[in-house]
Each structure stands twice: as C-alpha cells, then as structure tokens.
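@channel sequence for tomorrow's demo:
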Amino acid sequence: MHGDGHTAESSATAISIQERGLDQAILVPQERRTDWRNWSGSVQFSPARYSSPGSMEELKSVVRTTVASGQSLRVVGSGHSFVPLVETGGALLSLRNMSGVTAVDAGVAEVWAGTDLKTLGEQLSASGHGMLNLGDINKQSLAGAVGTGTHGTGIGLGSISTQVRAMTLVMPDGEAVECSPAQEADLFAAARVAMGSLGIMAKIKIDVVPAYRLELVKQTMDLDDCLDRAPVLAQSNRHFEFYWFPHTRKTVAKLMNQTEANVSNQGLTSAMEMALENGVFGLLSRLVRAKPARAPGVARLIGKLVGDKAPVMVADCHRAFSTERLVRFNEMEYELPAERGPEALRELVAYIEKNKVLVHFPVEYRYVKGDDIWLSPFYGRDSASISVHQYVGMEHDAYFRAAEAIFLNHGGRPHWGKMHNLGAGQLAGLYPRWDDFMALRQRTDPAGIFLNPLLKRYFGA
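structure tokens (generated this afternoon):
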C-alpha cells in the first residue's frame, strides 16, 4: 500500500535499483508482463495488468474495466511496505499521476492521494503551511501512509491517518463516494486505515498548520536510564524517540520541539547522517551479511561511532522529520499500550543478550497518541511503538518471531505495513471494532475486488 513503482508494459531493458535509486520500488518490463518489487526486495510479483490513471474519470474507468474483467485490483504507492499488501496476479494500479496539493483553506489541504510525502511537504511549505507530524521516511504516497496507519513520534500526536478530515473514495462500482465524520461516518472511521480494502483513495483533505521550525537535540543515554525517563521525556517534548544499539547498553535519544530560532546546521547534520548512517553503516552491514557472527561486535562498534554530543539542528518542519535511508532492511513493528513499552523492551534486550542474536541494526522506540479509527493499531490507547530491523539478505524470522511473542504478551498490535505473522483469528481479538469493520467490508466489496492473498489471510475471507 505504500508504493509508487511503475512502467509501461513493454520489452524494454530492466531498470536496476541503482539506476532508479533505493528510495523507489521498481517495475521491470518484460515481454507482455510487468514485474514489481518493493523497496526491501521482500515482495516480488507479476501483475496481469498495470495502469496509472491521471484523473478521477480515468480512475473510475480503470475500476469499472477491471471489475468487468473479473480481476482483482490493488493500488500501489512507493513500495515501502515490507509485506505483500499490493501483491496481485490481477490488476495493479498506481496513483503516481494523481499528485499534488489542489487547495489549502482554513487549515485543511486538499491533496491528490498519490502525492508522495516529500512533495506534499514542499508544496505545503511553498504556501506557508506544514503537516502536524510525519515519520522518518518521506518517500511514501499519502494514500499508502494513511491506509496503513503510518506515524511519526509524539505522545500528543496521532498517526498521519488521524490528520485526515475527509476522503474521496472510488468504490468497486467505479463511483466516487465522499466520506467524513459528517458524511458516511462509518466508512470514514474504517477506511482511513483499511489497506485499500474498502475503496481507492483518490483525494484526501488533511489538517495543516502554519509552517514552523523544529529544534533537534540528540543525546546518548544509558539504556536503563533512558527507559526510566522515557514516559517523562515523552510528555515534556513535542517529539521524543530513541534508538537502542543491540549488544550494548547505549541509546541515542532524539528530542524535537518547536522553536523561533533560525535554521542552522541542517546541511551539516544531514551530511554527517548520510556518511555515518548510509556510507559507514552500509559497509559494516555488508561485512555482517558476509559473516553474521560479526554482528555483535559490529553493533558495539556502531555504538562507539555514535558520538556523545551532536550539533543542535534547527530545520523547517517539512525537512526536520525525514532521514535518507539507503541501507535496505526488513522490519517488524508493534504498537503497545504506552505503559507497557519499557518492560517489553527490557524483555527484548534480555532475549537478544541471552541468545546472542545476530543483529546489528538498532531497535527504534517511539510514542503515538491514541485514536478512534477502527483498525488503527492505536485504537483507544496511547502507544509505545517498537521496531526491530534486520539487514536485507540476513535471516530475520527467528528474531522477529521472538520479538513478536514478547510484544503480543504486552498487548501489542502490528503495524499493517510491516512484517508480522498474525491471521484473522488473532487479529480479531486485538481490535474492539473488528466485527464492525468486517461487516462494513462485506457490504462495501462483497466480491472481494480489493482483496489479495494477504488481506484474505488477515480478514479470514
């Protein structure tokens, strides 16, 4: 759901990841077929048809044609989901040509759903506006970010989905439906996080605020100290998150707050992060993949390379959140009740240390405000978000399953765009509005036009 890779069906020469850039999913043209894979390479498939409409009428026509052909239809964004949310042997549709901000009025922006978050930030900034909050990757399409409950960090700030005020959905009959809290309220409550299973997001109205700047302060902390102080740091900063380096007791905390100060150190900090997080870290990751036993030692080395002091950075809001990610990985993320987060991470640390897990990627810990969206992982509760990662090409299943067991024991819910092993039976017990969502989905798309094998597993279809 997060993706935006495409090409015309042809026999053109395959385009490599290096030529397109690691931030892009790719479609590799072959004889009368189109191959697609996501950013990390964990998902690869060949849809029967590909289309990229450029208007609402073209989008409606594609839906009607697909339904008439008896094929299923999935919508792709930038390919930043780690699971096969868009995999299909039927029709694959990209919204990349339906992009851009069309209007901003009274604190609400109207945006084509195919707009990627980087473009959205730049266009909002040009009009003197900004998003309330974003995650640390800005390559996703807005539709993909909303549909999977993608988020940043901040105990007083919800996911991107909570910032949506209204949506225009194209339904299985090819007709457009407007939904909001005042119009088709149940559809609105469900469709904001539905992984494209209720309708195709065409236009989104989303909250914006006057443009602002953020001051970023990074500091290293002992793990136990960081976990003890985490609830207070979350409450006392607009944004708080930290990274723990496995096989060490070291964390790096990131604190961000609004400021009136002038932009400073933005380029310097970005250059330093690019060199360390992508150049050096990429080289070390390749060494670990060649010999996984190196992982603990490399993790400790990375912890040492991260200095105790970093320059304070002040950046415009649309640039402050995102970090360039060129080193590819696979990821699992769970959202836990906020008060259970520290204990869960301590258990994960103990598991990694006891079992000498061969991982060198940091564990990420964030906070997200609760919401009322039916299938949102944050439904009804403020949450601590814990993410585990493994370098591409390295074994991750045992590590992820162990982490998942810990997270589930603490009431965790999985991020819809990231790896997990749950099916309908387990998922139903995690979401109070699950049955309401299933009933609405059956009424909305009884033929399962918008389903694929993964969604059938999730929904028991």
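heads up for whoever presents: Residues 1-33 have pLDDT under 50 and may be disordered.
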